[in-house]
Design goal:
about 130 residues, alpha/beta, five-stranded mixed beta sheet, three-stranded antiparallel beta sheet, 8 strands, about 20% helix, globular
Amino acid sequence: LLMDVTPLVSKGRQLIESYGDGAFKISGVVYTDPVIVFPESCFSPDNFGTDKSDFRLLREVFQTTYSPSVLLYGTGKNTSLIPEIEKEFVRQQNCVLDIMNTGAACRTFNVLCAEDRRVAAVLFPVD
């Protein structure tokens, strides 16, 4: 007996299907760079490398018209620290920053998206 554990996601919502081997599969599209995922869109910003200490990606989330109440920051295989000034920046946007490894961030994004929460995720690939 197979059990489907894929969360029910509304039509038009992004679903992170898989991650690993330096890539993500999100709603049928493969990305090989860091991505920013919103419930209704996903993109890989130009000119961003894989340097997790470059926090412009985090700030890029708030350059859109979408304002998340939860921002997941998937830092790759292991969880890494984020400077207090960046955490404070996110707090000033009335948003909760949750830092975790990329796998946990992918799973959490799918669950929160299925619950129609105002969520966004910055995800770094895992080899």
